[in-house]
């Protein structure tokens, strides 16, 4: 029988869960989190119906793993990591960037159509101001459709693969295709031309980018920061270490050497999945103390 609100407030375990949920929400969603939440709660008609796969994927705790994997994979494109390094402020304000990206994903996935379009327009406005030159002399623009497409496919592949490995309810093959198609709606709105709409097309698109990818000093510096020097308090280091190990373990083997990441097949097949699943279950338990609402974190700059 469910506990009443009075019983929950008197239960020390429930009190701990609510305290942890509050701290996690404050860190991930930031001061603007409650406002975003209320906009989503009031939303009537958005881009995706309640039965769409994108809502399941983006509402699962596995997004913590997927988001980190996406950042590592995206960094392998020299122009993408140059733009991130020079314009995103991920070192100076990593939590602010995380909060903005989480808000973007939450609004476009669960918000009203009007709010979703406004969020997309805001990101596109930022992209028009992001341009420069990579260390190798090549120029980049954040609104370049080809570069946008790489960021998109790396992100979608990461979210989907980590959901299939660590999500509470992995998608069927048909649902996985549906997720890729759902994500393509947002990608097209952002300016991606002909985004993949099936998992097969997604795999083909990533393979097509491989000749352009490289482990640059900027990419390796970003990997070191994300994996070894995140701005976290001491108690959060161990859980984050599990997320980092799960993210690295889910990357393709061809990404490891360019980023100087270890490949430990025995650990990645045994200890890492066990720890990853345990942490994701614990995270879902903590987040369940909030009112039922799909929220998310990830890697799109807004």
Automatic annotation (TrEMBL):
Annotated ER-bound oxygenase mpaB/mpaB'/Rubber oxygenase catalytic domain residues: 55-285
Residues of the signal peptide: none
Name of protein: DUF2236 domain-containing protein
Gene Ontology MF, one: oxidoreductase activity
InterPro entries: MPAB/Lcp_cat_dom
């Amino acid at each position: 029988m469910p506990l009443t609100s009075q019983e929950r407030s008197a239960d020390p375990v429930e009190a701990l869960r609510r305290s942890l949920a509050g701290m996690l929400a404050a860190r991930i969603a930031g001061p603007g989190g409650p406002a975003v939440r209320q906009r989503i709660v009031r939303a009537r008609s958005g881009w995706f119906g309640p039965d769409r796969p994108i809502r399941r994927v983006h509402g699962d705790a596995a997004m913590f793993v997927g988001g980190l994997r996406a950042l590592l994979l995206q960094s392998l494109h020299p122009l993408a990591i140059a733009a991130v390094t020079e314009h995103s402020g991920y070192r100076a304000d990593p939590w602010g960037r995380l909060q903005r990206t989480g808000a973007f994903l939450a609004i476009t996935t669960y918000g009203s159509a009007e709010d979703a379009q406004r969020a997309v327009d805001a990101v596109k406005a930022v992209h028009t101001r992001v341009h420069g030159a990579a260390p190798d002399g090549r120029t980049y623009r954040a609104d370049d459709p080809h570069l946008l497409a790489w960021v998109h496919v790396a992100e979608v592949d990461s979210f989907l693969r980590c959901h299939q490995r660590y999500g509470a309810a992995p998608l069927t093959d048909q649902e996985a295709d549906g997720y890729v198609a759902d994500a393509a709606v947002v990608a097209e709105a952002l300016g991606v031309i002909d985004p993949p709409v099936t998992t097969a097309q997604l795999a083909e698109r990533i393979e097509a980018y491989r000749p352009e990818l490289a482990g640059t000093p900027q990419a390796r510096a970003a990997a070191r920061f994300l994996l070894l020097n995140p701005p976290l308090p001491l108690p959060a280091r161990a859980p984050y270490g599990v997320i980092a190990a799960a993210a690295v373990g889910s990357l393709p083997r061809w990404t490891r050497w360019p980023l100087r990441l270890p490949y430990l097949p025995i650990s990645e097949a045994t200890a890492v999945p066990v720890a990853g699943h345990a942490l994701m279950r614990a995270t879902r338990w903590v987040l369940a103390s909030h009112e039922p609402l799909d929220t998310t974190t990830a890697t799109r700059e807004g």
